Amino acid sequence: MISNIxxxxxxxxxxxxxxxxxxxxxxxxxxxxxxxxFNDGLRARQDAFASGQPYPTDxxxxxxxxxxxxxxxxxxxxxxxxVVLQQALADLNSAYRxxxxxxxGARNGPKVRPPRPRSRKDAKQAIRFTRNARFCITPSAxxxxxxxxxxxxRWSRPLPSAPSSVTVIKDAASxxxxxxxxxxxxxxxxxxxxxxxxxxxxxxxxxxxxxxxxASPRFLRRAEKKxxxxxxxxxxxxxGSKNREKARVKVARAYSRVTDARRNxxxxxxxxxxxxxxxxxxxxxxxRGLARTRMAKSVHDAGWSAFVHMLEYKARxxxxxxxxxxxxxxxxxxxxxxGAHEGPKPLHIxxxxxxxxDAWLDRDINAAVNVAKAAGLAVSACGAQVGxxxxxxxxxxxxxxxxxx
Length: 405
Ligand SMILES: [Zn+2]
Fold this sequence. Notes:
binds zinc ion; alpha+beta; 2 domains; 8-stranded antiparallel beta sheet; 9 helices
């Protein structure tokens, strides 16, 4: 079971689908028709732009699609649900809207690229059915899709309410998924006493202001290791060979296993943190900024932004307070015990002693406490202080130790 937020309180619920061979053929046809609807619309806009004609509106594209179905060249578009085609156009329209907003600066985040044609070779194929397509779940718990049939579903957990749309996806590993959009009403959890600051790091996935450290779970590390092996194997295969194709499928499978395992881990950890704490603060990491450095791979793998996003929507869902602290706060430079500014320290310094108050501090936990304090949360700095057992007897001159954490 996978769920994540789209907008507001809409959640996605994803399930594995097991279409029959006939249904797979029908789906392939629907993916193809949706691609054509999308690409025809894209070309119409590109041609209009190139020849100085006015921009074809959403409504015009829709009318052209209907007209095209009446022509012999495009008559086969009628073989699939009309909603699938209209939804492909809707994707094109929102791609243009995002592009326009990005150009005008009304949209945050990375620059949006102009839409490009969809291809049969794209790793992911998808079609969307909205409610007016009359998709439904049959009494025998299959997903009934117009002009596709009753597709078997593995219901890894029940759907909480009637979905407003379903997207059928085929991934690079040739697996099929149904992704339902569900309107979720905020729930309440019993009030919790504790508040927490969270530092997301490279040595540990998450370090908490109460001193706890969470590493990536073994199942995720194992899946990642398998993926690296599969990638290495693929890189040694000759281009265009049959073995290369087999290796490519293996990499795609290993990759989706890593993605699933990581998402599960994020869900478990974020749910536990939301249950335990009334208020949560996390550093607002600019993953994009970090990704340019040599840390890129591990940053990417750690999936921090996906995790923070999950924490944020679960906080909203369950009525917890959630704070993002600007990354310009020097969380690793200030002593959480006395507030003295100790200046930047190289990454290998894991434990240091404050020159003002003599407290021995764990770099990551100290940062987590500072994140909580920056959000105005009343946390104790005790968690950041290293117990006597962890303090090596020898004291270095600079007041810092390496490798002790
Ligand atoms: Zn201090």
